[in-house]
Design goal:
This protein is α/β, with parallel strands linked by helices. Helix content is about 50%, strand content about 15%. The chain folds into 2 domains: about 120 residues, Rossmann fold (3-Layer(aba) Sandwich); about 70 residues, Arc Repressor Mutant, subunit A. This is Response regulator.
Length: about 220
C-alpha cells in the first residue's frame, strides 16, 4: 500500500511536531515536509511530491488562503489536495479557503483519530464538509455572488441540480444515492459530470458554486 504523503504547514513549531508524530504513527501515512509559512508550503508542495497539505490559515509571510490558491492554480500540483485548519465557525476565512481550492476544513481541536480519517478522506478525493459546519459557514460568510468557473446551473439537468443541492449540504455519494433512490455509482457519476460542467476542482468547489449560483440559498438549509 502506498503511503499518503503529507506536508504540514503551521507557524507553531509545537503544533507541527504534534501533527508530525500523529501522522507518522499511521501505517498508511508519512510526513514529507514541514513549513512554517505559506510561502514555504507552496515551495515544499512543488518539491516534496506531497499528496496532501495540512494547511493552517493564519501564517506569516503568506497566509494559508493565498498558499492554497497558488497550489490550486499550479498545473504541476493538480493532484495535491489541501485540508485547511480552522478555529471552527469563528474563522470566516474558511469560505475563502474553499474558494481558493481547498478540499475541506478541519477544526484544530479535532480528535487524533478524526484527523487521520480526514486526511484519508481528502487524499482519496472526497471533500471534508460535514453538513452542520458547512451550512453555517456558507450562510454567514458567503455574501458576494460570483460566477462559476465555467458553466452555470443552467447547463445542468434537473436531476443534476438536485444532486448539486444535496452535495452543497454536505452529503456524500452514498447519502445522495439514498436521498434520490439511485445507486452509489450513479450518484458518483452525476457528481463527476456536474464537476466537469461547472469547472469545479472537487466537491468543496461544488459547494461554493451551488451557493454562489443560487441553487442553494443561504439560510434555507
Amino acid at each position: 500500500m502506498t503511503a499518503i504523503r503529507v506536508l504540514l504547514a503551521d507557524d507553531q513549531t509545537l503544533v507541527r511536531a504534534a501533527f508530525a508524530m500523529l501522522v507518522e504513527s499511521a501505517q498508511d501515512m508519512e510526513v514529507v515536509g514541514q513549513a512554517a509559512t505559506g510561502r514555504e508550503a507552496v515551495a515544499l508542495a512543488r518539491t516534496s511530491r506531497a499528496d496532501l497539505v495540512l494547511m493552517d490559515i493564519r501564517m506569516p509571510d503568506l497566509d494559508g488562503i493565498e498558499a492554497t490558491r497558488l497550489i490550486a492554480a499550479d498545473e504541476d500540483l493538480a493532484g495535491v489536495k489541501v485540508l485547511v485548519l480552522t478555529t471552527y465557525d469563528t474563522d470566516e476565512n474558511v469560505v475563502d479557503a474553499l474558494r481558493a481550492g481547498a478540499s475541506g476544513f478541519l477544526v484544530k481541536d479535532t480528535r487524533p483519530a478524526e484527523l487521520l480519517d480526514a486526511i484519508r478522506t481528502v487524499a482519496a478525493g472526497e471533500a471534508l464538509l460535514s453538513p452542520g459546519p458547512t451550512a453555517r459557514l456558507i450562510a454567514r460568510f458567503l455574501r458576494s455572488p460570483a460566477a462559476p468557473a465555467t458553466g452555470g446551473p443552467e447547463c445542468l439537468s434537473a436531476r443534476e441540480r438536485g444532486v448539486l443541492a444535496l452535495v452543497a449540504r454536505g452529503l456524500n455519494n452514498t447519502e445522495v444515492a439514498e436521498a434520490l433512490g439511485l445507486s452509489p455509482l450513479t450518484a458518483k457519476t452525476h457528481v463527476s459530470r456536474i464537476m466537469g460542467k461547472l469547472g469545479a476542482r472537487d466537491r468543496a468547489q461544488l459547494v461554493i458554486v451551488a451557493y454562489e449560483s443560487g441553487v442553494v440559498t443561504p439560510g434555507r438549509l
